[in-house]
Design brief:
This protein is mostly helical and 441 residues long. It has one domain: Amino acid/polyamine transporter I (Up-down Bundle), CATH 1.20.1740.10. The chain contains 18 helices and no strands. The two termini are 26 Å apart. It comes from Clostridium fungisolvens. This is Putative amino acid permease YhdG. Its main location: membrane. One of its GO terms (cellular component) is membrane.
């Protein structure tokens, strides 16, 4: 059975996938934080989250260049923590991505409904989801080209928004009312939505096997990607909060057009912003489909998931993983609960971040001679990243107790599944990269 991915990606395409996976977070989702904290409180949350992602991506670049594998975090954890650790990391990645995608699809539906009120948001979300599932089945080369185009358009839209809003920024909007609404609890509640600015940036690691020269291309794509996202996140929030009332932003499904309407009124500019906003949402929808399909593909190839999920078509696309995982995502679109879905996705992401940084520390001690084309400043940078990730876990748990039970239940079911099925299948799975390397030695 052919289950080898094609190596076609260049650094600019990897950058496009990384930024594209995340850029929808600039267009929607983050604004729900303003229901629980003030703009100043959210700025604090954004700063903490930005420091985390900056340090995390440097550590992640070390892992992904040393072990360029489609499984990404599941492969790093498997190599450092054993098969069970690899499974939990892979499951966390699927939780992050499979819940992020419905939230993005629902936002696409909201933007389409804003432009064409006669089209129900949920129906529009499902149709958009289906279209990009089909595009992903055409192979990574075609998918990456589409991703790069829509990402560039989406970046252009954010620059248009920043340019149109900058002359109308009023600092009183940012400092109005209670400066630290909700106190520390409000800031904790805002953290998941600050994470939404960057959520899924690590997904580029799942394309590592498809890079022409992963050991050189991955650091370039990762570092340029996180730099781009930091600039866009800060600019988007500052302009939005500076031209709008926080209470108006917090209740909008399409915050950027809403912000411009407050300045220019309902008209061509807000419609254009909504139209371009669709490109940002589409870029993330499309990019995250790439990410979760490669994760499912790699977990299947390693024996964690059914073998048919690692089959690829003539275009080199893991078509079964794309379709099956996407059908699961579509089920959650039907709930319509965008803000709850974002929180669940963040739980998966934070679990993944913690496991990945622990894996980095273990691999530094366990395999000191592993070829590392890119090395992070060790141990300071990964230690900062791990400490903040643990803070995120506390913040998420304390501020979302009603959602925690669902997350714990999902992990409990996944562990039962692992021991009843996946562990029994490992004996017949194809060897992982570390097993192949050890045999060669």
């Amino acid at each position: 059975m052919n289950n080898e991915l094609k190596k076609t990606l260049k650094p600019v395409q990897l950058w496009g996938i990384i930024v594209g996976m995340v850029i929808s977070g600039m267009y929607c989702g983050w604004n729900y934080a303003l229901a629980s904290t003030s703009p100043v409180g959210f700025i604090i949350a954004i700063l903490i989250v930005t420091v985390f992602y900056t340090t995390f991506m440097f550590g992640y670049a070390e892992l992904s260049t040393a072990i360029p594998h489609a499984g990404g975090p599941s492969e790093y954890a498997s190599r450092s923590l054993g098969k069970f650790g690899g499974f939990i990391a892979g499951f966390s990645c699927l939780v992050e991505f499979l819940f992020a995608t419905p939230a993005i699809a629902l936002s696409i539906g909201a933007y389409i409904h804003f432009l064409i009120p006669s089209v129900p948001a949920v129906i529009a979300a499902l149709i958009a989801y289906g279209i990009f599932v089909i595009i992903n089945c055409l192979g990574i080369e075609a998918a990456a080209k589409v991703e790069l185009i829509v990402t560039i358009v989406a970046i252009g839209g954010l620059l248009l928004f920043i340019g149109a809003g900058a002359p109308h920024v009023e600092m009183k909007n940012i400092f109005a009312g209670e400066i630290l609404k909700g106190g520390f609890s409000g800031i904790f509640s805002a953290i998941p939505f600050a994470i939404w600015f960057y959520l899924a940036v690590e997904g580029g690691a799942m394309s590592a096997e498809e890079c022409e020269n992963p050991k050189k291309d991955i650091p370039k794509g990762f570092i340029l990607g996180i730099a781009t996202l930091v600039i866009l996140a800060v600019g988007t929030f500052f302009i939005s909060a500076g031209v709008s009332d926080a209470s108006v932003l917090s209740s909008s499904d399409s915050p950027l057009p809403t912000a411009l309407e407050g300045v220019y009124g309902v008209g061509l500019l807000s419609k254009v912003m909504s139209f371009i906003g669709l490109f940002g949402l589409v870029a993330s929808l499309h990019g995250i489909i790439i990410g979760y399909s490669r994760q499912a593909f790699a977990m299947s190839r390693s024996g964690y998931l059914p073998k048919f999920l690692s089959r690829i078509n003539s275009k080199g696309a893991p078509v079964y993983s794309i379709v099956v995982m996407s059908l699961i995502g579509m089920i959650f679109v039907l709930t319509g609960q965008t803000s709850v879905i974002i929180v669940i996705s963040c739980f998966g992401a934070v679990a993944l971040y913690i496991i990945s940084m622990i894996s980095l520390f273990i691999l530094r001690n366990k395999e000191p001679n592993l070829n590392r084309p890119f090395k992070v400043v060790y141990p300071v940078v990964p230690a900062i990243s791990l400490a903040i990730a643990l803070l995120f876990l506390v913040a998420l748990t304390v501020s979302n107790l009603s959602t925690v039970a669902w997350v714990v239940g999902a992990y409990a079911i996944s562990i039962i599944y692992y021991y009843l099925y996946a562990k029994m299948q490992n004996s017949t799975a194809e060897p992982s990269i570390e097993e192949v390397d050890s045999e060669a030695v």
